[in-house]
Design a protein that fits this description.
The structure holds 2 protein chains of 2 kinds. Chain A has a two-stranded antiparallel sheet. Chain A is globular and about 60 Å long. By secondary structure, chain A is an all-alpha fold. Chain A has 11 helices and 2 strands. In chain A, a hairpin with a 2-residue loop joins strand 1 and strand 2. In chain A, helix 1 packs across helix 9 and helix 2 runs parallel beside helix 4. In chain B, the strands form 2 sheets. A 6-stranded mixed sheet of chain B has the order 6-7-8-3-9-10, with helices on both faces. The radius of gyration of chain B is 17 Å and the shape is globular. The chains are: A mainly alpha, B alpha/beta. Chains A and B meet through helix 6 and helix 7 of A and helix 2 and helix 3 of B.
Chain lengths: ~290, ~240
């Protein structure tokens, strides 16, 4: 294999990884803080993609701009779902919340199949330009989407570490009971965190719509990406989601070349199992919080 | 009286009753220590007094505000800070972030927050040196300073401290006792659970003896310390 092909595959992987970081970050945040495996996450991403598609088809607004509205809107939906539905079983074992979010996912996903059909749709190219660096060619849309994915994820990370509410979210993740002694209303933090997680899903959906065709059938694939990136990087860590997403993107990209693109899910699953065997706390994660 | 009034509190977990009809007052300013053997209900008492568990009966009042039955954030807002057993600092957060979490309920503007942080650093200069360090990477004594500082950031009228000296070096205990004495002189009410009875008698002006969930003795430190029954039970004297 030539050096230029290797460089191209690596670049493709990094661009994919930037998007995967955005896909995984909200899922990781919710799992880490609420101890809820949010099965709804993939469908929320698809919902974001559809919203971006409609903004583009009806109003001619490109997904980078519509994300500014779509993210908060889906975040608000997430806040309400947590506040009025998931909160009722939040103290139940993780299996119960998993079944609940799985049911919510079925409802949302089948609702989207009904409303939009399972046909693939595509948002037209935003710039359509190709950047060339010597032998490497990179579509500008993909570069912008990947950079936006990483920037949004880092912005959430900065918010968690530098704001009063953000620190409370981190505190609840570390030690729920002690955060209550600080005067934190945990149910409020749970709703805000779930809202933040789904807002990230909505934005990730807009960014995915720039690059990939849209269908409700994508949701399980997105959930898989979030799951693997999360375990790779370390659960509940935003920076971990970025690292995990990028590693997964690069491994998938090389996997497509060496073992064939039809095995990309297999490659991801092998990576997941290897990680769980060798370093179950993730690349950046802690073994335990308490 | 401006302190904490505990009247007829009965509390426990599910069907298990741990505290039976507990009544006493915590003067503010002043230092009250709770002594008692393992399983006497000392930690359960503090958990009830900060709202982590709801009493089945009884009243908990601070400066006229009735708190029993309310959620922990109401206790914090009214002026009760709880420094839990084992410090329970937020791992992965810096000393300063931990202290700032203590002021969560107060929504302070940045300049006021800075002043309060500086007041804690003046009380415990070691924390100022380590402000950017992961809080749980410090020694036990420094962690206890941070936990007490975090409690102070809530600007409490009464602070509850569970196991002040457990596992700490004697020199660290001296620093903490000195700081708490100064805080009480400045107007703070303190309720300290202390397994080392000698430290409790030395630190507190009032002693509450808890035995199997009941208050068996309350009184000034000197008179409780002189009680032969107390000396036999908690100092191992014949």
């Amino acid at each position: 294999m030539s050096a230029s092909l290797l460089a191209q595959v690596l670049a493709n992987g990094l661009l994919l990884g930037g998007l995967y970081a955005a896909v995984a970050a909200g899922f990781s945040l919710v799992w880490g803080v609420l101890n809820v495996v949010n099965m709804l996450h993939g469908s929320a991403i698809v919902l974001g993609s559809y919203a971006a598609w409609f903004a583009s088809a009806r109003f001619g607004v490109n997904p980078f701009l519509s994300a500014i509205v779509v993210g908060p809107a889906i975040g608000l939906l997430g806040w309400a779902v947590q506040r009025f539905v998931i909160q009722r079983v939040i103290t139940a074992p993780v299996l119960i919340t998993l079944v609940l979010t799985f049911a919510l996912d079925l409802i949302l996903n089948n609702g989207m199949i009904n409303a939009f059909s399972a046909d693939y749709r595509k948002v037209p190219p935003v710039t359509g330009a190709i950047l060339t660096f010597g032998p490497i060619g990179l579509p500008l849309d993909r570069v912008l989407a990947a950079v936006a994915g990483v920037v949004v994820t880092l912005a959430v990370h900065a918010y968690l570490n530098n704001s009063r509410l953000g620190r409370a979210i981190v505190a609840v993740r570390m030690d729920r009971e002690t955060s209550m002694l600080m005067g934190v209303k945990v149910e409020h933090i749970y709703a805000v965190t779930f809202g933040l997680g789904l807002a990230l899903a909505g934005i990730a959906g807009c960014l995915m719509a720039v690059v990939f065709p849209i269908s409700p059938l994508n949701s399980s694939g997105y959930l898989g990406i979030a799951f693997v990136a999360c375990v790779l990087g370390g659960l509940g860590s935003i920076v971990g989601a970025i690292v995990g997403g990028i590693v997964l993107g690069v491994v998938e990209s090389f996997g497509a070349i060496f073992v064939g693109p039809e095995y990309s899910v297999t490659v991801a699953a092998v990576l997941l199992i290897a990680m769980l065997l060798l370093r179950p706390q993730g690349l950046l994660g802690r073994a335990g919080y308490e | 009286m401006t302190g904490l009034t505990i009247n007829g509190v009965t509390a426990g977990y599910g069907d298990v009753t741990v505290l039976q009809d507990v009544s006493f007052n915590v003067a503010a300013p002043g230092i009250t220590a709770v002594i008692g053997s393992n399983g006497a209900g000392k930690t359960t008492l503090l958990r009830a007094l900060s709202g982590l568990i709801r009493p089945n009966a009884g009243r908990i009042a601070l400066g006229g505000a009735e708190l029993a039955g309310q959620a922990p954030d109401a206790f914090v807002a009214t002026g009760i800070a709880h420094v839990p057993e084992g410090r329970r600092l937020f791992a992965g957060m810096t000393v300063e972030d931990n202290l700032m979490m203590g002021a969560f309920s107060r929504r302070l503007p940045a300049s006021a927050l800075r002043e309060e942080l500086d007041a804690v650093y003046a009380l415990f200069p070691r924390l100022a040196e380590r402000r950017k360090q992961d809080a749980v990477s410090m020694s036990g004594g420094e962690q206890q300073m941070c936990a007490i500082g975090r409690g102070l950031m809530a600007k409490p009228k009464v602070m509850l401290i569970d196991e002040l000296s457990l596992g700490l070096a004697p020199v660290a205990v001296d620093v903490l006792v000195d700081a708490l004495t100064r805080l009480a002189a400045d107007g703070l009410g303190l309720l300290v659970v202390e397994q080392d009875v000698a430290v409790a008698f030395d630190l507190a002006s009032q002693i509450v003896v808890l035995d199997r969930g009941r208050v068996t003795r309350t009184g000034p430190s000197a008179s409780v310390a002189a009680d032969p029954a107390v000396r036999a039970a908690y100092l191992g004297e014949a």
